[in-house]
Amino acid sequence: MTALRVGVVGVGYLGRFHAQKLAGLDSAELIGVYDAQIDTAAAVATELGTVAFESYAALAEKIDAVSIAASTPAHYRLAKYFLEQGVHVFVEKPITETSAQAVELVNLADARRLKLQVGHIERFNPALLAAREHLHDIRFVECHRLAAFKTRGADVDVVLDLMIHDLDMVLSLIQAEPIKVSAMGLPVLTKTVDIANARIEFDNGAVANVTASRVSTNAQRKFRAFQANQYLSIDFGTGMIQRVTSDGAWEGAGDKVPLNVSEWSAEKGDALFLELAAFVDAVSRDTDVPVPGRQGYAALLLAENILQCIEDGKR
Question: Are 135 and 170 in contact (CB under 8 A)?
Fold first, then answer.
């Protein structure tokens, strides 16, 4: 199979990793990189033995697929341009700033028969992959994603910066329509929301409670799911998974509850490499991408509803 010609647009902190992973893929040929900061692009190009293009338009002429890791406000403009040039697109999360922009990209990709994948990296987290076979008919989910403040990512609020990881994960696992959202949030260090909590109810009766903060002193990325006769917990930071199952309901006699507890640790993996490899493979084989633009749109739309609830609460 001929190696897919790829490029990276936006090679700052995260985009540099994109370029490194794509350069390491046998199924891809890293043609070049582009960044608005010319020196940044030149440094990454030198590191990886590729070309720093002076414009993304020039790069588009040489590639079959692109990874866009620029700042969120630039996602729509860049992704639209590359799709219009017939280039398959991988774009970091959130897919765009607004759901209206996301719909336009999804429709454009469909019309041009191009792949559009969104970088919801937790889908490829080894801990989630190791636990996923045990997750079915989830009735309640609780997610906590807490981090220290970083200027990187501060161009958007915490819902679009951090919480959207868990919104996408919850949507992919519950696979039902959200019908009711309640939320609260407030700014602490920036002019936008820095800490938020949302309760999401689905049309199948499932409920998710999601918290995100970028003003914490200790990082935490934990996921808990409850279903009939099972509780499952994932610590994405350590890779530890705990699964508690019941052989039957407690009947009110005695102190012993029939529980089976198992714990294991997922092997350290490279989620970014996996998701970019999946994108390259889908383009090369003309198969469905694992996180299509339509799902990126769904996560963004839910995030918008949460932000609207927060804003309504302010009023």
Answer: no
